[in-house]
Amino acid sequence: MRELLMGNEAIAMGALAAGVNVVCGYPGTPSSEVVETVAKRKPDGVYVEWSINEKTAMEVAAGAAYSGSRVLVTMKQMGLNVCSDPLMCVNYIGIKGGLVVLSADDPGPISSQTEQDSRHFGKYAGIPVFDPATPEEAYRMVQDAFELSEKLGTPVILRPTTRVCHNCASIEIEEVKSPEKPEGFIKDSRWVIFPRLAYSAKCRLFEREEGLSDLLSQYCFNTTAGKGKLGVACGGVSAAYTKDVLAELGADCRLLNVATPYPFPSKLAEAFLDGLDSVIVFEELDPVIEDALTEICGRKGLRVKICGKRTGHTIHAGENTHFIIKKQLSAFLGIELKEEIPDFSDAPELPARPPILCAGCPHRAAFYAVKQAMKGKKAVFCGDIGCYTLGNAMPLDMVDTCLCMGASVSVPQGMYHSENDAVHFGFIGDSTFFHSGITNVINAVYNKAEEIVVILDNSTTAMTGHQPHPGIGKTMMGDISEKISIEKILEAVGVTSVRVADPLKLEEAVDAVREAASEKGVRCIIFRSPCVALFKPDKKMAVQPEKCRKCQRCIRELGCPALSIEDGRAVVEPSLCNGCGLCAEVCGFGAIEEVRG
Amino acid sequence: MNRSFLLCGVGGQGTVLASRVLAQTAMDRGEYAGTAETIGMAQRGGCVVSHVRTGSGINSALVPEGGADLLIGFEPSEAVRCMKYLKPDGVCIVSSKAVQPVTAALTGKRLDSAEMIAYLKKHISRVIVVDTEAICESCASPKVLNVALLGAAAESGKAGVSTSEIEEVLRKRLPEKLIDMNLKALRLGAEAASEE
Fold first, then answer.
1. Are the beta carbons of A489 and A471 closer than 8 angstroms?
2. ipTM above 0.85?
3. Among all residues of chain A, which has the CA nearest to that of B66?
4. Touching check for A363 and chain B: CB below 8 Å?
5. What number does CATH give the domain A539-596?
6. Are B39 and A29 inside 8 Å of each other by CB?
7. A223-333 sits in which CATH class?
8. Strand locations in A58-128, DSSP E?
9. In the list A14, A304, A355, A568, which could disulfide-bond A550, CB 3.0-4.6 Å?
10. Is the backbone peptide bond immediately before B76 cis, with ω within 30 degrees of 0?
11. pLDDT tens-digit profile of A287-297?
């Protein structure tokens, strides 16, 4: 059956076709749709969960794989760092059931803190990496990854990038059947990591590399083609662009497609390099293929010039595009581009559209309340990972730092020990709190830090597409589970000052912040109001033109996308307004009123 | 025959559904289809672009600069931003309604849709402007903008797809209660294009 599938859906369907038993992970763009698709389309006998963080997910995955289950664990590239502790041991220990680690990379980056390249992790951990160029390849490769993982008894990384994860393609998919029941855990000393076992495992990892590289030189997606003295090497989505560009240019040259960047298919690459004068390498993120080719040339004494990121022939950062590759490849091949690019330099000035908090987002109200309460006082606002990072935009300007998951709670601690005349705030979302905020609160309380932790509880993991978490009371298996109370956790770890407030009630919210600011120790404010994307609003706001005094305070202070100016007056765009009413509370003239939506 | 479409607009306007519908119509004809969309953080009020390529022998769904047969602008300034993708003989379908960015509100400047459309017409030989505001009003929903533009795209003759093919896909994809409203928008969009 052919279906239009997003790359992530294709990966999920491929894993189900491979008979996966257990799927777990933590949401992160561009990886999140894999677990969601498994939950939607799984047959009986497949277990799926959103774990609270990637380290937990990897450990759940390891346990399942020790017991003979086929397991897929999913995350974005930043999440691979979070789970590197178990990953960098399970590579030594090995597994019984196939274990595929999906780490989705984000060239650009489009929605990440960094342009980290997961391919390095494969080399670092000594485990194979599959790098699909298209959703179709991803569908096949996840199945190949399970085969290889089980054959070698090792975890395997599948590393798609955003343009594979989020692109759709019509794909022929196999029918999904219930997986075989795993054998279960069999006790054996091999499952306990000890120095002596680690030594022999290290030797084994090192020794298997060459044989594995030879095996992968035969792999159907590692290919060579074409003829001539000039070569192009590529991998990942850049391979798809390169093939389209070569067809468009009608050019013939040697082509190497690398689908397994680790272990590098050296024999295939040597055959490709043989007789070439120079090679240009197209890949995103880091020069992994480029360095591997350079190394082969060095080891084999080949006098082939390798052009790429290190030689300034290709881009160092950001996404490749058809256009970029066409320019660089035609220059490399000495082909003159005929068509002229039209000149649009006389275009009218185009508006900047940075991503912003949605109209009616309770985070806007929470940031505004803290800002009002701290007016004229020295305060630092530490942000975290989630929609609320967007609180940094003008006019809110309420995110002074953003580092990584959970750091909003611990960074203020370090600041407090360096300057104690400011009030230090941390803003953390509900899902991020469960991910890695709790341990940081314990650290702050026990070590007698002074800070205010603001928990922005919108009852979902909003940024990545509304996944449930332990505070919601629903699991991915469709069960109802007892909600885990954020208040009770805080109380249990020794936070004595805990307030819960509705951020959309401005006065109540500002009072909560003022009171907390007058106290000592670690204080927590839970601003609780659901994400606007989760419900249909029953009211909207409208500006009464005769009452509007054109002061534009609502515009200057809130930055709500539903508010704009017409003839100097504020207007509310009804198709965008979610009726939160914050603008009405901010208006000094009572000019903004509620209307039925 | 291979065709390339570029859909652009602002997060929340429904570009993703529109590109999936175009891809599905090609698949229903037995062709290959691929799409590439903006998903995630950039969606929150940011610029969004969807690429659609249909036919055969396609490796990547990304439409190259100068490669689109049809540019579907869900917002006039976003259409101007993406003009470089259109083929020299390509057609542009554009919504008449500007979406004011927060930055414009802060600086007190309003985005002028007429200026953007005039610029499109200066450089593109065939621009079909769809009065989406009127269509959305008559269908009583701002959400049908995407389907109205698909109607105009089909009627332009450049999409290689008919309104009845789109109708068939919409009937399969949309919940029952939304079908009539969307089919009305599809028809009104097609009428807007035939009047041009």
1. no
2. yes
3. A341
4. no
5. 3.30.70.20
6. yes
7. alpha beta
8. 71-76, 99-104
9. A568
10. no
11. 999 999 999 99
